[in-house]
Design a protein that fits this description.
11 strands; 5-stranded mixed β-sheet; Cytochrome Bc1 Complex, Chain A, domain 1; 412 residues; alpha+beta; 15 helices; 2 domains
């Protein structure tokens, strides 16, 4: 399958040192704006601090009330999302190019001059607690919490299992402290995708690139090393009919020479419908409706994780079959036919991901969130085209080791 290498974003440095990446995308009057602030969950001093800071940005500024922000989005036909990841805070907006300037004025006010009011925080906190309580009865979500707790450790910001008390502990002062630490030009990076012209880049530079503002730069690597626990953990949830299962380990960093090849191996094991895990555990054994293997990015660090849900009585045989599939990869070379199948599947998925400018933006932004250079996108293409069965069996023997795995089961 022919798939050309992607043209990398055009990167320029604004007057104050902020990086601006431009991804051209045709002549349509549509613009995607992404603003990243380095920090995320990794630097919060209280659980939920990053999440609530980002949610409160929409609740009013010194220039706009929450109602005005909402009305502006509706009036200009724009869509906005603000969220946190392990190492970044991320604002995304889709809008018509002709309305870029008034919307950029509003975004500037939101990130530079927010007002954190107790009444707004109280509403968000109560809503958050309600969702938390609902999610605390879902085995997939609870097993994910415990898996991260085991691979990072309870003392790490990414390993702490949130409680309702953590919601009660969030205050406007804590949110203001986090905002003052993170939201500034030293942590900022901007992506513009779509019909980007000089007028739009000048508007961005005027609002975010002229002067330095906000807190000083954070250390280069904001994610501290994890403190992984090995072994098994069983968590009981009363009344559930199925168990959530997570099996995995803290894998290599994105910069490691084996990372891209191990990513391909992960697809072969459990990354598509016809994968080893799906073919055996779903199609042959009928233990589950869906099972997958993936690499979850935590900044530049990556956790290998197999996830599934199954009836409580099938947990033990399912786990045994997972390890059996790992052993097969270590003992038997992948056939030429299967290798070509996975190669073509992966190239097809990459074609879909690279189809348009906004999809490409998602790929490059995810690379940045994962601590990977933009060139990794094309380097992975080269790996997919050239990887061999011999390399795959070597990787399996090196990394798919049962004694290094964490196992979490959440169920009745």
């Amino acid at each position: 399958m022919e798939l050309s290498n992607l043209v990398l974003p055009k990167s320029v440095v604004l007057d104050n040192g902020v990086l601006l990446h431009i991804i051209e995308g045709g002549k349509r009057d549509v613009l995607r704006i992404d603003i990243l602030f380095r920090g995320g969950y990794a630097v919060q001093t209280l659980p939920l601090q990053a999440m609530f800071t980002n949610r409160m940005l929409r609740e009013g500024t010194s220039d706009y009330s929450a109602v005005e922000i909402s009305r502006n989005l509706d009036y200009y036909g724009a869509w906005m999302d603000i969220y946190s990841s392990q190492g970044y805070n991320h604002l995304t907006m889709y809008a018509m190019c002709r309305y870029a300037e008034p919307l950029l004025d509003m975004i500037e006010s939101m990130v530079k001059r927010p007002q954190f009011r107790k009444s707004n925080l109280s509403t968000l906190r109560n809503n958050g607690k309600s969702f938390y309580k609902i999610n605390s009865h879902k085995v997939d979500i609870v097993s994910q919490r415990h898996f991260e707790n085991m691979i990072w450790g309870e003392a790490h910001p990414l390993g702490h299992i949130v409680t309702t008390e953590d919601y009660d502990a969030i205050t406007c002062d804590a949110i203001s402290q986090y905002h003052n630490q993170i939201y500034g030009s030293a942590q900022m990076e901007i992506f513009l995708t779509g019909s980007v012209d000089e007028k739009i880049t000048d508007a961005v530079n005027k609002r975010f690139g002229c002067d330095s503002w906000g807190a000083p730069a954070l250390p280069a690597n904001v994610l501290e090393a994890p403190y992984s626990l090995l072994g098994k953990r069983k968590v009981t949830l009363e009344g559930v009919m199925q168990s959530g299962v997570k099996i995995g380990f803290m894998a290599m960093e994105s910069s490691h020479r084996d990372f891209l090849k191990f990513r391909f191996l992960t697809v072969l094991l459990g990354g598509y419908f016809g994968s080893r895990l799906m073919s055996n555990i779903r199609e042959e054994k009928g233990y589950t409706y869906h099972i997958e293997a993936e690499l979850d990015a935590y900044g530049s660090r990556n956790a290998f994780m197999i996830s599934t849900e199954t009836a409580n009585e099938y947990v033990e045989p399912l786990v045994a079959e997972v390890y059996k599939e790992m052993e097969r990869l270590k003992e038997q070379p992948v056939s030429k036919e299967e290798l070509e199948l996975v190669r073509n599947y992966t190239l097809g998925e990459l074609c879909r991901e690279y189809e348009g400018a906004f999809q490409k933006a998602e790929v490059f932004i995810n690379a940045r969130l994962s601590g990977e250079p933009f060139s990794f996108v094309n380097e992975y293409l080269d790996v997919v085209r050239t990887i061999t069965a011999e390399e795959l069996i070597t990787l399996a023997q090196k990394y798919l080791l049962k004694h290094n795995m964490v196992e979490v089961v959440v169920g009745a």
